[in-house]
Structure formats: structure tokens, C-alpha cells
Amino acid sequence: MSSQVPLAKQVRKVLVGDHAVAEAVRLAKVNIVSAYPITPQTLIVERISEMIERGELRADYVRVESEFAALATVYGAAAGGARAFTATSSHGLFYMYEMLWWAAASRVPLVMAVVTRALGPPWNIHDEHTDILAMRDSGWIIGMAQNVQEAFDMTLTAFKISEDERVLLPVAVGLDGFILSHTAEPLDVPSQEDVDAWLPPRNPRIPYVIEPGGEAITMGNLPGNDVYHAILKKYMDESMESAKKVIAEVYDEYGKLTGRNYGPLTECYRCSDAKYLAVSMGAWSGDIMNAIDRLRNEGYSIGLLRIRYVRPFPEEDISGWINGMRGIIVFDRDYSAGMGGVLAGEINGLVPNNVSFEGVLAGLGGFDVSADEFKAIMRDFVDKTEREGLVRIRKYWYIPKIER
Amino acid sequence: MVTITELHKYGKTKFIMPGTAACPGCPLQVGMRQLAMALDGKFAMVIPAGCSSVIPGVAPYTAYTVPVLHVPFASSPAVASGLVRAVKQRGVNGPVVVWAGDGATADIGFAALSGAAYRDEDILYVMADNEAYMNTGIQASGTTSWMAWTTTSPRGKTEDKKDVALIMLMHKVPYVATASIAYPMDFIDKVRRAMQIKGFKFIHLHAPCPPGWKMDDSYTVRAARLAVETGAWILWEYNQGKLIISPPSIPYRDKSRRKPLEDYIKIQGRFAHLKPEDIKVMEEKIDRQWDLILKLAEII
Ligand code: SF4
């Protein structure tokens, strides 16, 4: 992240990740929030309810009976022209699955926080990225924050990205369960006036508005021609492509406003002179950076490519960084059964055959991976490549020993 | 009370444009047209999966003349909750109506229906009940009648019809009614009275479906009327604290004035396999339902 001198007045607060997301929702002057509790998302909707009670946010708060209804409600609200927000996690996200697709293909702007968590069985409330990655084909823009500040920034910028006429797709803001959601960190929060000037109220007529007495438009009835469906999907794909540009623009502006410019879809740490590249997303990227600093001190030439947005897939960025590297090691906190790590699977295809590759499956179900462990895994990979010339390991299950 | 003279002004108004994908004799077109008359064509509609998502024909065109959001099967009450709040925040005050079938209402969408009702969302929910999943080819739903043939109840459905209107009454919403496409004035009055009230309004509209009920295309209204005349379908209205029997059903409080149940049953192929003792059981069920509704009308 590069720093600039910010234009906005900012105050420093200390908040947990969930509360930082709520803070961004307040500053975005969201009109409608639907709420259903699920750990570890609950703090978001609780904090928003307090904000509304205290009059800090003038929004309709809808206490729905399920996550499916939570997304259906904000979908209806967005179709009615409102700026709408909800939040979920894990099983809740999966209960929404049908609506995820409907909301995205309807092309109404929406923002939803996804506090990542493992899926049962067995019951497990701890962190894993499998839930948010299961959204990846649905048409949502999907980001993963690294820390509390970024969770805040990503939420605020999400409204601007989602409502851009060149995009009009819903945005999911991912933050790691407990690791970010329940951990307090200092963050800088811009003033309401500065946010207002930067993020005007939503234009209800873009893309369209369904309202009583309004124009007799219809959304979602059968296409007259099979090809029509394909054309709509192609439009969606074009939106995803232009989202890459829009995200870059929005972060550029946001960087000027707040002094924080992460780079659009990816952020690369100590990459410019690196011969090896680690790839990751989410909160544990901080620990990996720490491990990389220590490997650098030992003479290892390695950097970290952090995926900030999984969708649209930052293919050009990734290919650019891979170019000239000797080896790529991808850390997945997720598992696609019968395949392996999701990021490893997506990135694998971009890695030339003469470059070493390892996909590491770790941290599933929330087990901690320390900087020391990251260091050891990366060092082994580099050593092996240097020794053998080429290493191709599609999946490596990193599972610490437990006492039974 | 709406009068025929008043409705005449809609004589040439096409609330649903011609050339729809509905079957001949479709009750949904009849009912939706009555709904549109009641609201003078000024409302927004949320329609979950079902016949009514196919009837308007193919995008980018639509036969419906009001704004419509087509939504997934289970989601319509929740979508309408968000929609109505959004338009209100923007200062638009017209009605938001969910027009849903029995499957979307009584079965898959029931949690969302219950949620929207208990939150007292300011919407009108019309359940157009053709008593089966007709759009997927006549499978039994929660409101399919006892012993009715469907493709998933080939020897007749063993469960009783789910009484959705009474269940909605117990949600303490301000307005619940039953209606029938054969009694347009009654239905239109009910829609208009409901629209005077802020909060959740529910109308259970009886809508006989020729292919699903295995009867002639021309029998739609006849079957709907016979359901009322035989007492099998009771028209009642609960309006903010008072439950009454609606005028078309009043004569049939008296069992002797009801037409024989066979008149209603025998025009429907879905009941062709019924034995006389089945019809007797059905009659007993109808009597019990009348007892219940009349007792409720005394105490509510
Ligand atoms: S199946 Fe019945 S309800 Fe459906 S379109 Fe045909 S007649 Fe209408």
C-alpha cells in the first residue's frame, strides 16, 4: 500500500473488523439493511441496529427470518432504487445461494459483507475461505480484506464500484472470521462531509427502478430466444472486465481522498526483485509478509502477491508478476473437493511449465499457521526448486500434528 | 361496494395484453385482471416462479402492463418487503402486490411469507390457489385437496388441504380474506378494502385450473362458483378485528341450501376415482370447516 497525503479529514478509531464494516455502512448512508444473525458476522448487524437506534444512520432495518430472505430483501430494495446492505457468513451464505445468482444477473447494485467461516459438518465457527470462494461463479465482485482498515475501505469503495454504470454488479466484501471480525485494530475514518462529496446518494434509476405506478418494465421473465440468455451473460462478462478498470479508478480516487491506495485488484509485497512468489488472500497475508521479511534476511529472494479481488479474476496482474519468476507457491485456506485449493487451481493455469509450482492447503477449519510455519513451508519450496530444478506439487496438505 | 357500472369503464382496458402463454380458460388471467381493475392498474407486482412467470410471454416483451419483478420461488415476500420499503423511502406510495401460486406460498415460500406477515410489511399478498404445482405439470402442493389426483398423488392425495388463510390470521395481521375468481365484485371489494389498510394484507384466491383439474377449458368459472355454492370454498373476510362471512357465501351457512357436493366433484377429472364413501368424508370435512369458520366469526 502506498501512502499519499490525504485530502480528507480523518479520525483514528480502534474498532474490530465487524464494527469497521458497520462504520463504512453508516458513512455510505445506506437506505435499507436486512439482518439475520450468524457467527461471526453478528457484530455487524448488531452495531448497525445501534447506529439506527441512536439516529446516526437513517435506514430501514429489516429483521428477516433467514439469510435467504436477507438477500431477497436487499435485492428487492435495490430494485426499488435504494442503497442496500446485508452481511452473512458460511452456512448463511450457502442458504442464500439461489438469491446470489438472481441478484447478480439482475444487475442491481448491492453490497454484502461476507465474514468467512468454515462449513460443516462438523460444526465449526472458525475461519476458512471456502464459503466466499463458492460465490465465485455467481456474478458477484468478490474482495478479501487483509486488515481492519482495509475491511472498512473495501466496504466504502464497494458502493461506488457496485453503482458505477459500467459495472452494476453486487459486491461481496470478505473479511476473515474472528481474525478480522473480532480483532480490534486502529484505523483512520474519513469525515462524513468528505465521504458525502466522494460518494453521492444512489441514483435509483440506474439501472432501472421497479415502482408502483412506474413504467411497466419487467425484470426476469423468460427470454424469447435461447441466445438472448447467452447475450445477457456476455454483458455480465463485459461488466466484470470493465470492473477491473472501475476498481482501479475508484481506488485511485480513494487513495487521493484518504492517502490509502492499495493498488486495484492485487498488491505485491517485495516483488519487484523477487525470484519466487508466494500468493495468498485475506488476513494471514500479514503473517506471510512477516515470514517473507525473515526469509529475505536469510538471503531468500521471495515476495508476496496478495489477491485483493478474486472476481473479477486479476489474470493480467498475476501473469505480469509471474513472468520471470522461478517458482510460485499458493496458499489456500479453502478446499474444492476433488480438486484442491481454489486459488491454486485458478493460478496454476497461468504458470508456465518450466516454473516451479506448489499449492498449499492450510488453515482449514481455522487452525492457526504461524509466520514460522509459513517461513518453513516457503523455504522448503525454494530449496527444493533450487536443488531439483523444477518442482510441480498441485496440492500439499499442510496439517500440524495434534494430540488425540 | 364496487358496481358493475363502475367496472364497465374498464371494458376495453387491457391490463394483460393479448397473446399470452396461458392455457385456454386460465384462472390466473381472470384473477389478475380483477386485481388490476381493483387497483386501477397502478401497482407494482412481485411474482415468484409459477404459471404467472410464464404467462406474460417472452422478454424483452411482457403482457403485463404494470412493473413486475420476477423472482425465485421462495423469495417473493422478502423481495416485496425490500421493494416496498425502498419505494416508500423515495416517497412513492402505490401498492406493492405479491402475486403467487400455492406452491410458492404454502410450501417453499412459507418461511418468507410468515416473516413478512409477522413484520407487518405494507404489502398485499394474493395467493392464487389452483391447488397444485401446475407450471411443472400438476404435482401435489400443500393446498391440493384431499384425494385429488395429481402426478405425484396418482391414487389421490392423502393429506388434507393446508389452510393458509387461517394460518395467516394467526399472524395477527390486519387483513386476511378468502376470495374466488367467480366472484369478481367480492374480490375487487376485498382488494380495495385491504388497500385502505397499512400493513400486511393476505387474500387467498381460489383459482380452478382446467388442465390441472382435468376439466373442460370452459369450466373455470363454473368450477369456482360451484366450489362456493357447494360450500367447499368459504368466502370470508377478517378486517382489523372482525371476521365475517362474505355475502356470496352467506346462504351456504345453512347446509340445506348448499348444492350437492357431487355437482362440484363430477366436473373434475382429478376426482374421477372417488368412491361414494370418499365423497361422504369430504362432506364431513366441509361441515367441520363451516363449523370452525362460523365459530371464529362469533368470537372474532
Ligand atoms: S396450468 Fe392452469 S394456472 Fe397454469 S397457465 Fe394453465 S390454466 Fe393457467
Q: Would you kindly provide a brief summary of this structure?
A:
Chain B: Pfam families: TPP_enzyme_C. Chain B: It catalyses: a 2-oxocarboxylate + 2 oxidized [2Fe-2S]-[ferredoxin] + CoA = an acyl-CoA + 2 reduced [2Fe-2S]-[ferredoxin] + CO2 + H(+). The complex is a heterodimer of chains A (404) and B (300). Chain A has 404 residues and is α/β, with parallel strands linked by helices.
Write a structural description.
The complex is a heterodimer of chains A (404) and B (300). Chain A has 404 residues and is α/β, with parallel strands linked by helices. Chain A has helices at 17-27, 42-53, 67-79, 90-95, 97-106, 130-133, 148-163, 192-198, 226-258, 285-297, 315-322, 342-348, 371-388, and strands at 2-3, 10-16, 32-35, 60-63, 84-88, 111-116, 141-144, 171-176, 184-190, 218-219, 260-261, 266-269, 276-280, 302-307, 309-311, 327-332, 356-361, 392-397. Chain A has two domains: 10-258, Rossmann fold; 266-397, Rossmann fold. Helices cover 39% and strands 21% of the residues of chain A. The model of chain A has no long low-confidence stretch (mean pLDDT 96). Chain B has one domain: Rossmann fold, CATH 3.40.50. Chain B contains twelve helices and eight strands. In chain B, helix 3 (51-54) links the parallel strand 1 and strand 2 (68-71). Chain B is globular. The model of chain B has no long low-confidence stretch (mean pLDDT 97). Chains A and B meet through strand 4, helix 3, helix 5 and strand 10 of A and strand 2, helix 4 and helix 6 of B. Strand 10 of chain A pairs parallel with strand 2 of chain B. The complex binds iron/sulfur cluster. Chain A: Residues 24-250 form the Pyruvate flavodoxin/ferredoxin oxidoreductase pyrimidine binding domain. Chain A: It catalyses: a 2-oxocarboxylate + 2 oxidized [2Fe-2S]-[ferredoxin] + CoA = an acyl-CoA + 2 reduced [2Fe-2S]-[ferredoxin] + CO2 + H(+).
